[in-house]
Fold this protein.
Amino acid sequence: MPQEPRFKPYVNEVWRLVEAQHLVSTTKLVDSGEEQEQLEQILEATKPPVPPNCRHLHYLLSTPFRYGRYPWDSRFRRKGESPGVFYGAEDPMTAVAETVWQRKVFFDASPDTPLPVAPGVYTAFSVMVRVPLAIDLTEPTMSHDAVLWTDPDDYSACLDLADRVRQAGCELIRYASVRHPDGPANIAVLTCRAFESADPVQFQTWHLIMRPGRTQVRREHPRVSVEFEFRTSRLAFV
């Protein structure tokens, strides 16, 4: 039986990784900046409305809460109609590792799809979060059940926990990354109230180069290059 959750405040900078291709793709369809802005507005109008308590936020922060219907179970969000979750990490490399794994899963599910020749371009951004009630699954009182929180495929215990802590007013879950080789901290933000500012604080550009069995990641500034090898349920440094 999992331990009863214990809540405490949490304050930290949280990083998230997103694809950086949306402006490039719309730019190809128009002849000017004005036309691109009009096209972006048309596309925006086709999307679900942003929840009222998230409308003050930059779209990078509000998007995970915008879509009420979720296509599949993730660690702390159920498929179907369910509350939004902003997944992030306490450092950008952990956020990168999670994205590398997601890309691996995508191409594993479509074996006839060739790996991209060009690097994937991604934007890492950070935001300060501050909540009065958070739960830390890496603490000793909760880590007794680490096998439940870190199962690579079965999210049922994590989903049940998320339901319980939401009902108790918890706004953030800190947990160990299952995909990064060293298991550093990931963050699941459960409410738009958690963001201390309406806009991201820092930005970085990352390039992900996929090859059979591995992915190389490069950051432009500060410059860094790392290669991950795919293992059964997590990545390994090459």
